[in-house]
Amino acid sequence: MVKVRAARPAEAEDLTGLVMRSKAHWGYDAAFLAACAPELRIRAGDVTARRVVVAENGRGEVVGVASLEGTPPRAELGLLFVEPSAVGQGVGRLLYRDVLRRAVELGVRRLVIDSDPHATGFYRAMGAVPVAEPAASAASPAAPAAEAGGTALVRFEAAPVPLADWARAWTGGGRAVHLGNVGEFNAQFADATLDREQRPAHHYACLAAFYSPHPAALVLPRPVPRGWTELVCRQLGWTGVEVYDGLLDADPGLAEAVRARPALAALLTGSGLPLVPWGRTRAFGRLAGRPWRDGELRYESKSAAHGLFGRILADGGHPGIVLPRQWRVDGRWAAARMLAARTRAGESTVLKSEHGVGGSGTTVLTPARVRAAGGARAVLRRLPRGPLLVEEFIGGAASRGDEGPRDLTYDGFVDEAGRAHEVGGAVMEVADGCYRGATVGPGVVPGWAEKSLIAFGAAVGRELADSGYRGWFDVDFVADGTGRLAPTETNLRLTGPSIAFMVAARLDALRGAGHLVRIADRVELGARLPEAQLDELCAALARGCAELGAVFVPAIPTGAFEPAPWLGVLVAARGREVLDAAEAWVRAEALAVGAMFGPS
User: Fold this and answer.
1) Sign of torsion over alpha carbons 435, 252, 242, 266
2) What is the number of other CB atoms lying within 10 angstroms of the CB of residue 314?
3) 128, 373, 451, 500: which is deepest, by most CB within 10 A?
């Protein structure tokens, strides 16, 4: 295993030899190498002054060298060279990330890189951004590769930033153990809209890879492809992640499955690392040694959340928020009568179950849809049995005369001391009441909505803290036609948007600030893929996105094994155009995999 350490003054001559061999690897002629030699020489006194580090393999051999030069807030990547025999083994990536980490610690906010054309692909893949400023000559020691004879260099920059404050507060700034107990969480709620077998929930448990910015271990109910975990770790710069999968056959109780394995339970709970679940359950409380608080999940109920929103709004102070009217009906025929009356009045209606996941149990009904279905009673006969809520439909953003987002969300969490923390706002993709994905990052939430969203979400967080809830939460909103937001529910657990926030925090710390991250719940595949072919597809998608200037991370791989195959994916970029292009390309390539099985 390769590790990075500080260089020693006594190594200066050997390091100079490594640099010259690395330079020669790219086909320089003897005259050019001789011209470069004075600038590329590392002297004993340079080792400390230029902050030189080396990469050392498991045999103690030095296989790479890098330097961080200058004074904050601006610094330069002075050296980054890899032994020719180690090229392509991740040494350059390891050294670059170490430089970025040290830059953060020094207070550097602008890291300048003068790259030869041969190295531009590497720096783009590492997240550096090309800039228009002139660069040094090709003989510069900052150029790990240059064409023979020398050419103009390309200047890149990176913006080193520390891990976000909220992310440090979430897990103490360190690594955590992630428990993918999605099915166990859902099973707490006796709701007919939730799948009793929890098959989809076990697929979504793969999101446990992203419950914090840097996991130490993943605990999963079903087996996952090894190629998936390797690619995710490579894309997000993780090392040493342990995976404990295949712990369940049918029962959704993952925490109990861990407790039934005393050695595993002791390993996970005795590590001293935070134990992070998808959501709180009584069984998780027993595993984590945390007392279960009766009623702490009561606001997972949509009617209870609606009541909470009403109490907050009764105090005033949130003029940008409007609460949709909601009625709890005693039975299906009462719901049918109310729906019929609203239809006759030309009003659209939202029917909701008390609990649901990703929009399950939520049906949006316009008068035209009710009539097309054969009337209100016919609509109700097609819905799952169970408690039902009737809610006023809030008109969308189209009536404002723009194409702004319709569905937004606020994410935050309450720590164990009862302090509420703001994570931020996101824009969701929702189709016919069903969640399809979300985008987070700078500028995603429009300015007209941001202040109201943040203020109301923070107020909900304070109320949840006072009620005894501890953990992640979100508040979902729809935008009306007058520039106001209508809160629709809270989720007292991690969510798709929360996963995007975690990945954005990791990428910002790993590659520099400013990432937009989009999570897409279901990307349809053109064919059901065996594990090896799935690995090949994901690797190809990662390479293709890198060429576009984006990052691809497979989030839910196991859906690829379903009869109607799909993937959950994460795509990241620093601009909306690149993000949209990368997502569109990923969707097209995923569908195209079926062509290989069709007629030529």
Assistant:
1) positive
2) 8
3) 500
Which tokens sit at 356? 């649901």
**Whole-number Å distance between alpha carbons of 105 and 516:** 24
Cα angle 451-453-458, degrees, rounded to a multiple of 5 = 100
Helices 496-511 and 91-106 sit at what angle, rounded to 10 degrees?
90
Tokens describing residue 26: 């790219």
At 33-54, the pLDDT tens digits run: 898 899 899 999 999 999 999 9
Q: What is the pTM of this model?
A: 0.92
Express each pLDDT in 453-511 by its tens digit.
999 999 999 999 999 999 999 999 999 888 899 999 999 999 999 999 999 999 999 99
What secondary structure does DSSP assign to 31-98, as a single string?
HHHHHHHHHH---TTHHHHTTEEEEE-TTS-EEEEEEEES-TTEEEEEEEEE-GGGTTTTHHHHHHHH
- 337-342 long-range contacts (CB < 8 A, ≥24 apart) are 337/376, 338/390, 339/365, 339/370, 339/376, 339/379, 339/380, 339/390, 340/370, 340/375, 340/376, 340/377, 342/390
Determine the number of helices (DSSP H) and then strands (DSSP E) in the chain.
Answer: 20, 23
Residue-wise pLDDT for 334-386, tens only, equals 888 899 999 999 999 998 888 877 666 788 899 999 999 999 989 888 877 76
HEC assignment per residue over 5-39: EECCHHHHHHHHHHHHHHHHCCCCCHHHHHHHHHH
Helices (H), 126-198: 165-171, 182-186
For position 151, what pLDDT does the model report? Answer: 58
What SS3 class is residue 154? strand
Distances (CA, A) of 590 to 196, 226, 255, 571, 581: 30, 20, 34, 14, 14
Distance separating alpha carbons of residues 121 and 390, to the nearest angstrom: 55
Cβ atoms within 10 Å, residue 330: 9
Q: What is the pLDDT of residue 96?
A: 96
Strand ranges for 154-272 from DSSP E = 154-158, 176-179, 215-219, 242-244
Backbone phi and psi for residue 430, each to the nearest 5 degrees, phi listed first: -130, 130
For 567-577, letters b (16+ CB in 10 Å) and e give bbbbbbbbeee
**What dihedral angle (degrees, nearest 10) is formed by the CA atoms of 289, 292, 298, 301?**
50
Helix (H, G, I), strand (E, B) or coil at 564: coil
Range in 236-250, 383-397, 552-566 with the lowest mean pLDDT: 383-397
Residues 198-227: what's their mean pLDDT? 92
Contact status, residue 394 vs residue 478, Cβ threshold 8 Å: yes
Q: Give the single-character DSSP code of 150.
A: -
CA distance 18 to 82: 7
Count the residues in the chain.
600
User: Which tokens go with 443?
Assistant: 């500028």
